[in-house]
Amino acid sequence: MVDEGAKDKIKGKAKEAMGKMTGDRRKEAEGKMDQAKGRAKGAEERAEGVKDSLRRDEH
Known about the structure:
The protein has 59 residues and is mainly α. Helices cover 90% and strands 0% of the residues. The protein has helices at 4-22, 25-58.
């Protein structure tokens, strides 16, 4: 299973770094947004995993 949240965080870090190096504030902000999106996806994926494990414990 591909961790989509981690991919977004990595992409965001790279985008933010490029924005900082080039002085492109918009690119830097996009990178921060991608990182936030990645953290949210990661939390959602972890919650799904917990929910699935609880479901298995019921049976």
